[in-house]
Structure formats: structure tokens, C-alpha cells
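User: C-alpha cells for this one?
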Amino acid sequence: MSSVRPLAVLLAPLLVAGCFEALAQETPRTNVLIEIGRPGERAVPIAIPMPKGSGPADEFWTVVRRDLELSGWFRVLDANASLEPTTAGIRLGEFDFADWRPTGATILAKTSLAATDDKLRTEVWIYGVDGGEKLDAKAFSAGPTGVRSLGHRAADFIIQTVTKERSFFDTKFAFVGNFTGNKEIYMVDADGYGRRQVTKNGSINLKPKWNATGNAIAYTSYAAGNPDLYVADLGKGQIRRVSSRSGINTGGAFSPLGDLLALTLTVGGDSEIYTIDPYAGKEVARLTSSPGIDVSPAWSPDGSKLAFVSERSGGPQIYQMNADGSGAKRVTFSGSQNTDPAWSPTGDRIAFVGREGGHFDIFTVRPDGSGMDRLTQGQGDNEDPSWSPDGQYVGYSSTREGGAHIWISSVDGRHQAKITSGGGGYTNPSWSNHLSW
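Assistant:
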């Protein structure tokens, strides 16, 4: 059942190698109380002046600022509004906090950038403005072309220092793009840059899903004429066809341990959910057996349950069941067309797509069916939800500005940001786990 062929293009290493160094604490680190909440709930005013030193300062500064804005944790202020002279430095004692207090900044992040033939290096110093206190400082380095990676790491350090939460800028989206006139699988960095093509078969490729380690993507392709399930092994640079049974082979979702693939098959003419071996494609178990379709399996983070879509009660609704197919329970009861479930990494909510008023929108609900929240409304069609690794955000495809693009929303819907730009055609996004810098 399984066949192997090389990737259509050679995938470059996913990540930029780099290192960091702690900077000497010139004063003891203090505990500064800052009200944070959730992303988008209480944006912390932050000032980020241009980095001191040499190198691609404009690009570095732009990356850091945009990352902080995309995160929803911060409101980035106009650094030119300060009274600070150009001779001021970035370390404690080299500048005056009084020059920054009129800007309304709660946090001040000062950076330096140094470029040599073989390395870029930045220092990041983070301060509480009101108390005139240093919160933390660290230096990072990367290769001479790694300015964007360096900016992401600087932003991540600022976010972790202030919020105690890890950012998502070491992740990627897999998605379907039609930039060549065909629906191919692509990857893009979490900030919308660094787009790379995974498939190049000139056919229809759909529904990419990452595995937990971020080194493989399952997807459905018509490359051989039938909707078969493939796995792109990014580490080995190979594509394997793992299920080519008659009828559809779609919706492949890796279990958290990566030892199973759940998918929809039409072996008996009806759409049912099965599990197969992700390497040989051998059937492991049939999980559903009911009239009407059963599709779109999504694993719980501990691998004990699956959410899925079923028409057993009439129109498509979200259900959950145990990983062996037992104990199926209906989750959604409002709306008549609920599809595309995605289980939060924290296990407490399931995102899905519902249709109301002629448009598709993103909702979340607790696994027991209670506490349904709506993330989007009146903003075009919003589909294919996928969670960030920490469960703080939901990524999805939206047509609110015309062509389909990848957007993110905080879990309460307060903060929404567009990730990709340019021509539309970004659909079926799947958010990776944390990768290595």
C-alpha cells in the first residue's frame, strides 16, 4: 500500500542555527507586577527604539516590532516620541528612564546589533519604566543571513520575560496554495514569511496536517488519480503514499505519539473513520460504523479520544469518541453545519467551523458541549481552524479581505491578526508544534 518517492523540491533545513548567552546582571533582577491577562485582553505599552550598532537594523527592528504586535500581548509605541538623545546607550546607567516616561511605556526593550562576516549578534535589555528596573538581558547570535530568526528570538525573549509565556515564532504553518494554478502544499513561517513549496505534482493536494515533532506532514492528493493519503517526510526529503484504497483516503491526522494515522475511508461505500499504520499503511482499526458520513478526525492531546464530524443525527455535527471508537458522544447541538474540529493542545476546548447567515465562522466549545464561544462574525468566510502549541491562539483561513489568507485569533476572539500577505490562496492551514530555533 505504501510507495516512496523524493520530494518535488529539496527542502532546506527548517531552522536557522543559533545560540544565546546570558548577560551579566548588573543589578539583582526584581519582581515587577504587570497585569497581563490573555493576548489582546490588556495590551502592555512597550517602547522599542532602533537597535544600536551595525548590521541590518531596519529589518531586525521591523521583525521584532511586528512579532510583538502579532502576539497581541503588547501595544508598540512610537519610539520617536521619547526625549532620549541619540548618544544614549542600552545598558542600565547609559540612559535616563525619565526620557521614556512621557511616552506612556510600561516596558522598554533596548537592543544592539553587530554584524561581522560570519555572524550577527544582538543584545536585548528589558526594563520596567515606572520603577526604573532591569527585568532581564540576553544576547543572541545567528549566521550572517539569519536576521529574521534573530528578530524572532529577540521578540520571543521579550514576550517570555514580560508574560512568562512562550511565543509562537518558532512554529510554521502548512497550507494549500494555488499560486501556480494548482493546489499544492506549502510551508510558511508563523509570521507569514519564508514560504516554501512541499509538493510540485501539478495536481490537487489538500488538508495538510503536521505530526507532533514537526518533521512530517500528512495530506491528501489526486496525483495518482484517486484521493490518496500521502506523508511528506521533511527530514528524509521523501514523500510516501500510505493509503490508496478505492474511494477517498482523506483527513489524515497523526496521533500525538505518531504511531497512528486517523483518516476517513470509503471502503464499504460509506465514509467511516479508521486508523492505519503511518508507515506501511496497514489498517489498524475501524472506529465508526453508522449511517451518514463520519469524517475529519482530530486527536485529543493525550491521544485518548478523537473529535470528528458525523451526520448520524441529521446534519453534520461535532462528536467525540474514545480512541478505540467506543463511547461516541455528540458535542455540538446548535447550528446545522458544524465541521472541521481541532482539539486544543490544553485539552479543554475544541475549535470547529459553523455556518450561520450564509458565512462560515470559527467557534470553540468544551468537549462536554458546554461553553460555546464564537471567534469570528461578519468577516467573510473563516475555515480550517488549527491551534497554536500553547492553546492561546487559533489559526484559520479567512476571506475577509478578499482572497483567502491565514489569520490568527486569541482564544477569546479579542485579538485577530493577518499573518500572510500578497495574493490570496492560503487555505487549509495547519499549525506546527514548536520547532528548534
